[in-house]
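Memo to structure team: turn this sequence into structure tokens by end of day. - J.P.
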Amino acid sequence: MSWSKDTTKLLLSLSYDGSGYAGWIIQPHQQTIQGALNQAIKKVTKTTDFKTLGASKTDAGVHALDQKVVLTCAFQPQNLERFQHALNKALPKDLHIQNIEVVDTDFNLHQMVQEKTYRYTLSESWVLNQQRYSLLWHGRKLVADELQRLAQVFIGHHNFQNFCGLSQAEIAQQPQATWREIKNITVEHHGSQISFLIQGPTFIRYQIRMIVGAILAVYEGKKYQAADLSKFLENPQVQKFPKVAPSEGLCLEKIILK
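Reply from structure team:
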């Protein structure tokens, strides 16, 4: 494979099954998505003179269909199609690069993200999903219209302090970090599966999983009522909502760039 020596930036669209991985970002002594990608790049290019940056720091067990990754490197593949093929051959079977393109050297990934779409999927019955075999099994009848009604309270610009994984110390350092906008939540029912499609510019750690967990807790009606969602959302000092949906049902479905 031939290279030019100019420093360049490449934009990758990466899909992966997050089962068995400790999330996106590299961690010591842990198998991560970024770590697996970097190993493949190192194997193909025979160099460590590069950096990767993901648009979303997906948590352990979370999947992606369209993670955006910027590869900054001291080389430029002269044939992107061959480079993509070589990387996919070097990657584990549960990671796949959908597309690679060259971007300007001043391209700022985080500033270019316009909207992210996450899908949280549950099944009313046990199924083997060929793409994500770790699909969450909820095991009871779910009514999409009722779930949609409960989800409406989260749409808009809110302080999600009680629906995120940030510690009190982290919030104290960045008081505005818990303010986020959710543009839309759509609940879809397909066969035995229910999906929450959640769209917004940015999200905080565990935010989507805590929102889904809260909606399901209210839907079950054992301890929480619909009014509790507003109480936890509008009163940040109350406490964090205690229900967090498992990671295996969550997928980063789409990232739209400006």
